[in-house]
Design goal:
The chain has helices at about 30-40, 130-135, 145-150, 155-165, 175-180, 185-195, 220-225, 280-285, 300-315, 350-355, 360-375, and strands at about 15-20, 45-55, 60, 90, 95-100, 105-110, 115-120, 170-175, 195-200, 210-215, 235, 245-250, 260-270, 290, 320-325, 335-340. The chain is of the alpha+beta class and about 375 residues long. Bound molecules: adenosine-5'-diphosphate and magnesium ion.
Length: about 375
């Protein structure tokens, strides 16, 4: 809606928000689930929502606001369907979103006030979409280009967190060239870490492509599996029997310091068929239990909440992040990772820890959008 309507017409003063979801990464379905919940939480009296789906093949689709079909049905995650309706969408330098529909007629969506990229994984959570929005001078929810890229890449995330003094598990990076030309050295390096190890795609998420490897004879298969998601792989010493604790962080209000939530804990139920918190346990069969707040001592809670804020600042995050930890035996703790667009359905850990801290789902979504609207575009 233009800012000035014809005489007598009501001016729509609602905030125009484009919610972008789906995407080209393997976390497409998880993003669709979240988008349905985020859109449902946006007050229609205050927000004019433009839902934009990105199909797995990269085509953009203008969706209707009825996102009821974006639910898990019969164990299947939802998907954006671009068949026949694909549009090319670009952000113009004037801060407008422009669509070319199949008949190639460009149509501008007009000036959006803010974009909420509800996207996980590469081409969404990794700074690429953020770069497009920066080029167009459009405000958006969450971390900027560099923080998104660092948070997505487990190699550079570890480097940034180490520089900030945060303890982590021993690890090795397996680059494509090394694996393809000198696998023997890679196997030696991994053996030096000591089995079991965890093998992960460097820029993955939702546990996809991750394996626990208990002995050398399983290593090659695990690396090959991880490489189906990302040619760069990270191998980490296994924290066996560790507790998994997670903390939400929000950008401070009015330029204040970032705020941390109470901690949450993920536990696999006793009869869970899973060796760790893998994709199925996370989203499909519900064999993981989330405790929020986690049952830990005040010392552990305070220390990890402090580390969560340090991690947020170490990568230069904005908006939101979830920082995950392992509590090893005794009170030894390490950081596992930071996520700049954490899972965000009402039953996901990030909203759960904020609810336990006193911010309910709708208030959380509202705070994220408000922070994005208040921040200036360009270099910050
Ligand atoms: N080094 C490790 N030791 C023990 N468990 C691990 C380790 N790394 C990962 N895991 C298990 O795998 C899950 C996913 O790993 P994570 O590094 O968080 O990847 P993602 O980015 O896909 O969430 C963790 O939640 C944990 O259950
Ligand atoms: Mg994780």
């Amino acid at each position: 809606m233009p800012p000035f309507g014809p005489p007598g017409e009501l001016i729509d003063s609602r905030t125009r928000i484009a919610v972008v979801f789906g995407g080209r990464s393997s976390e497409h379905g998880v993003s669709c689930l979240t988008a349905a919940d985020v859109i449902a939480a946006l007050d229609p009296l205050r927000y004019d929502v433009i839902p934009i789906g990105i199909a797995p093949d990269g085509r953009w689709v203008l969706e209707s606001s009825d996102l009821d079909r974006f639910r898990i049905t019969e164990g299947q995650l939802p998907q954006v369907d671009a068949s026949g309706t694909g549009i090319a969408l670009r952000a113009s330098a004037a801060g407008e979103l422009v669509v070319n529909e199949p008949d190639d007629v460009p149509r501008t969506l007009g000036q959006v006030d803010v974009v909420f990229p509800v996207l996980h994984g590469p081409w969404g959570e990794d700074g690429t979409l953020q770069g497009l929005l920066e080029m167009a001078d459009v405000r958006y929810v969450g971390a900027g280009v560099l923080a998104s890229a660092i948070g997505m890449d487990k190699e550079f995330m570890k480097t940034a967190l180490t520089a900030a003094g945060l303890p982590q598990l021993p690890y090795a990076v397996v680059r494509p060239r090394e694996w393809e030309h000198d696998a023997a050295t890679v196997r030696e390096t991994v053996t030096a870490l000591g089995y079991p190890v965890f093998v992960k795609p460097a820029r993955g998420g939702s546990s996809l492509g991750i394996s626990r490897v208990d002995s050398a004879d399983q290593l090659d298969d695990a690396i090959d599996l991880a490489r189906e998601y990302d040619p760069k792989v990270v191998v980490e010493a296994g924290a066996i029997g560790a507790r998994e604790l997670e903390c939400g962080v929000l950008e401070g209000v009015g330029g204040g310091a970032p705020e941390s939530s109470v901690l949450g804990e993920i536990r696999l139920v006793d009869d869970s068929p899973h060796l760790f918190y893998d994709f199925e346990a996370k989203y499909v069969d519900g064999s993981a239990v989330l405790d929020a707040p986690a049952h830990v001592s005040d010392e552990v809670s305070e220390r990890l909440r402090g580390w969560a804020v340090t991690a947020f600042e170490a990568i230069g995050a904005e908006g939101l992040a979830r920082v995950d930890f392992f509590l090893l035996g005794g009170d030894t703790m390490v950081v596992n990772e930071i996520n700049t667009m954490p899972g965000f359905t009402p039953t996901s850990m990030f909203p759960r820890v904020w609810a336990a801290t006193g911010l309910d789902y709708a208030a959380l979504v509202d705070r994220l959008v408000t922070a994005a609207l208040e921040r200036r575009t360009g270099l910050r």
